[in-house]
Write the structure tokens for this entry.
Amino acid sequence: MKRFILTKLLGALAAVIGASILAFILMRIIPGDPARLQLGPAATDEALRGLRREMGLDQPMWKQYWIYMTDFIQGDWGRSFKFGQRVFPLMRSRFAASVELGITAFVLAFVGATAAAVLTTYRRNKPLEKVANGTAHIGLGTPPFWIGLILLLLVSQKLGIFPGPGRLDAEVAAPNKITGFYTIDFLLAGDIRGFLDAVHHLVLPAITLGLAPGAFLYRLFRANLLDVADSPFLLVARMKGVGRLRAFVRHAVPNAFLPTLTASGLLFGQMLGGSVLIEELFNWPGVGAAVTSGIRTQDFSVVQAFILISALMYVVISALIDVLYGVIDPRLRGQGSGR
Amino acid sequence: MKHVLRDRALSIALAVLSVVAVAAIIGPWIWDKPVNATGSSLLDSRLAPSWAHPFGTDQSGRDVLARFLSGARISLLAGVIAVITGGLIGGALGVISGARRGWFDTVVMRLLDIVLAFPPLILAMGIATARGPGVTSAVIGIVLTTIPYFTRLVRSDVVKINALPHVESSRAMGASERRTLLRHVVPHTASTMLVQSASVFGYTVLSLAALGFVGLGADANTPEWGVMITKGQSEMLNGNWWMATFPGIGLLLVCTAANVVADRVRVHLHSPAEGAADPDVPVSIPSISPIGVSG
């Protein structure tokens, strides 16, 4: 078991290092001179050379990588010239906005998906099943940014139920920063109006972001539930006199839930990392929006930091899931290398 | 064929895809209106749908239906190219890894882990920026993100098939390793490949639109669905709903149909990749990331 966990962790570490090298190379082969971009076309050769030296661009590639990584680990993520700020605090403040949206969307998706899957398999209610399956297909097949646009048009503009883009109404001031989550910060400040406004603004982007993962989880969980429903052990349980509800809750659901749980973990990780398109559409000041603008303006440090964090998150979560699986299902332990 | 006709969802999905494909191929000839600024008149800009312009016109007076049809061509072609290249590269890697195992397998799997750990949208965006934006760059980026999924599924199939009795008997009868692989192993990965291709097709169409939407796919004048949605976005909130709505419906139809096909084919063919828990397949990896490039 120890060996198993160790191999998984080493593999995860290798993947993160690999991703960081790939990110570094990708950022360096992109045409354009960061020093020139930062100083503008009127800069003198003198100034350009000075800045290049300061940014370490005159060093050989491997050395630049080494310097970057050692700085990164120490929390020095470089400087964003677009935002005129150091990247670490920039990302930290934007991360709160992304995480708040990500958690809300994930909770909506997870609760909706499991509830729908349980209801449609336990009752085998045809009309409900059709609606849920149809919604899931559309959720997976439609570009989220388009759904978001339609929601903005219909629900926000035409019906006026939910507000338009942004985290708060224009006349509501942002709360004092404690956690960075507006909803929690308003509650801590005892400002109910502000809290409601923040929640109000969360609904549409969260639905848009949660739709595709929710649809995916619903289909996965449902497929596994239907699989388990046909398995002999369930029949045995029923034959021994276990009631339908109890058989379902105690025997079917736990056995069918594992794949959904792991998929949820990975999706959660991805959703926390900020959603580039939805943040752009809803004018949400999160990490994703910063990255899109970072790519457009070749703001290397922001993009690089984002790649590293996402890769780290992905790798850590999938390694955790693998280890968890090994703990739960001993059959999977033998093949430490067979990832 | 009978199977196909009896399955209503599958028939409808295939019908939708065929209609869009036919429209994409012959549509631009029949509905022969200018899709670019030259030849259209600004006097016709922002016209609501009518007989002369069934999908209305956009800001520059271009016919939205004509652009929709050209957009269908771009999207479907991108999807087909991505499936072929991604499938060939990913499939070949999967077959070799699964058959040879050893160091080659380890190296390939580690490299693919790195690609998987990379946020897909960023990978595609990075390539678009490095090569200069455009449909080709976007498709290259998207293909890169799909390869790991092809490879993993095919590899796990090959590992499993390799252990089946018919493969063993082929070897026992003295068939070469190569012949055994090509004649008795690879053909059995077809169902996995077919299912995976349908998912990847939908994923590619969606991702291309997503990249177009953020301005890193097709350029602003190309009649690509994602770009059309971006340009229609501001107009939409002014009440001119048709510019962004129709390309969105096109995406919805094509991608949903592709997903339904993948789903139904999986049910009919029972790919060997499913079934008992297999230590080689990470349970946590779906056949394609549901958030992927479009998140």
Observations:
- Chain B touches chain A through 55 residues (CB under 8 Å).
- Chain B has a mean pLDDT of 78.
- Residues 64-100 of chain B form the longest helix (37 residues).
- The CA atoms of residues 83 and 197 of chain B lie 6 Å apart.
